Structures are given as C-alpha cells and as structure tokens.
Amino acid sequence: MVYATWAQGFRPGGINRIATVPPYKSDLLTSYEVGWKTAWAGNRVRFNGAFFDEQWKDFQFSFFGQNGVALFTIAGQAEIKGVETSLEWAVNSDLTLSSGMALMDPKLTENYCGQLDANGNSITNCPVPLAPAGTQLPGSSKFKGNLTARYLFRVADFDAHLQSSVVYQTSTWSDLRVVDRGILGQQGAYALTDFSAGLNRASMSMELFVSNAFDRRAEFSRYAECTATACGPVGTYIIPAQPRTIGLRFGQKFD
Question: Whole-model pTM above 0.85?
Fold first, then answer.
C-alpha cells in the first residue's frame, strides 16, 4: 500500500503568569506525508516507512524566567523534514528481528528575536537574533533508531523467550536560544541496551530483565531552575537514564 496524508492541528494560545510578559498566540502545524506499507517473502518481511514535511507556524516553546517561573512565547516559523522506516523479519518460526529509525532535520526557518509586535507576531528582523534561522529545535534529535531480536523456544512445558534490544539517538539541545543552550550544554548522543528472558505457561508468566545493561549515564534533559544566564553556570540540572536495573516480573491473567 502507498498512501499520502495532509493534516493540520493547533495548540491554543494563553497568558503568562507574569503580567509584564505578553500573552502568546496559538500555533499551527501543517503536515504532509507520503508513505508505504509492504510485505515480502510470504509475509515474513514487513517494510514500512514514510517521508514527511511538517510546517510549523508560530510554534510555541517554554523557558524558565525570573524566579523560576515557566514562560511561554512563540518563535516564528519552523520546519521538520525527514523519513522514518520500520523493518520486521521473521527469520524462522522462532527468531524475529525488528528495527526502526527516524532521520530528521528539525530547524527554525526564520530568525527568533525574542520580541513580539503589536499583533502578537514574532519579530524576525533584528541585528543579533537570539536564535538564527537554521537553529536545531530543542528536544529534537536528528536521528533515532532501535533494534530488537527475540528468540522463542520450549523448556519442558513452558514457552520461553530470549530478547535483546538497543535504542540510539543523536545529541539534542534543551533550549532554542543560542546563548542559553550554550550555557546549559548539549545532551550527548546515547545508546541503551536491554536484555530479558522469560517463561510462559497457560495464564502465568515470569521474566528476568536487565534494563540499561551497560549502565550508560544517558541524559534525557538538562535545565536550570531560573534563567540559564543566571542559574545555568552554577546550577544546571540533569535528568539521567535509570541506571542498570535487574528485576524479576511475575504475571497472572484472569478470564
């Protein structure tokens, strides 16, 4: 199957909790997508994917202002172009391999000057923009990927499985503004690996798992509790990945 979609959506505007900071308008996202869903080799291989282009008008973003109050504003135009795919391969009746990836270019397409005009529109013409056109959007990596292998077998009267999975993403930024993001620092690329082994019979299940098996200190977020220029140099907080965790799960299904 080959398909194409067009969609629009918005988030409503609002007011900020500090009276001197102006309210912010709603934003509008227009997305275009062309994709495919295919099956090969007697349905043992499935390959799906899509090319997409998202046009983001007056996109909203938040940041910490004075006294740690979260403020919202709009930042003109942005765009996210990319491709995403998924691949599943049933090697045989016992072994299945699956993977997915997304390759994106999330960026501003206009300068962000940090000011609004009388109509609440973002001003894009200024001598030194807080974020020039082409700046990577905060919280968005340029590549994400995952790979999973699952093997099924029998142990006595039990259905058993072994599974391994890894997820990877490239670096991201926590703030749109160039100076502030430089103070907070970049969230580095990371890869996290999980393992599990389990037994199932009838309505009961048991699984031994190891999450973040190699104990990577991946960073999910970086922030300061007030403006980055004031708090960031001495107080940048990091939300890390959960450290290596080993556990045992039990399950019971009821009719």
Answer: yes
Quick check: 209 and 164 in contact, CB under 8 A?
no
At 157, phi and psi to the nearest 5? -95, 15
Element (H, E) at 229: helix 228-231
Say whether pLDDT at 66 is over 80.
Answer: no
The pLDDT assigned to 8 comes to: 97
pLDDT tier for residue 61 given thresholds of 50, 70 and 90: confident
- Mean pLDDT on 230-254: 91
3-state helix, strand, coil in the chain (%, to 5): 5, 55, 35
26 phi and psi angles, rounded to 5 deg: -75, 155
Answer positive or negative: Cα dihedral of 147, 151, 152, 154. Answer: negative
> Which band of pLDDT confidence, cut at 50, 70 and 90, is reported for residue 120?
confident
pLDDT at 168: 98
- Average pLDDT for 129-149: 95
Rg (CA), the chain: 23
Q: Which residue has the tokens 């140099």?
A: 233
Which domains does the chain possess?
Answer: 2-252 (2.40.170.20)
For residue 227, give Cα distances in angstroms to 62, 182, 236, 244: 12, 13, 11, 33
State the DSSP H helix or E strand holding residue 235, giving kind and residue range, or none if neither: none
Laid out side by side, the sheet with 95-108 consists of 2-11, 27-40, 45-57, 77-90, 95-108, 143-155, 158-169, 190-201, 204-211, 245-252
Of the candidates 13, 18, 197, 193, which has an alpha carbon nearest to the alpha carbon of residue 121?
A: 13
* Integer Cα distance of 253 and 248 in angstroms: 17
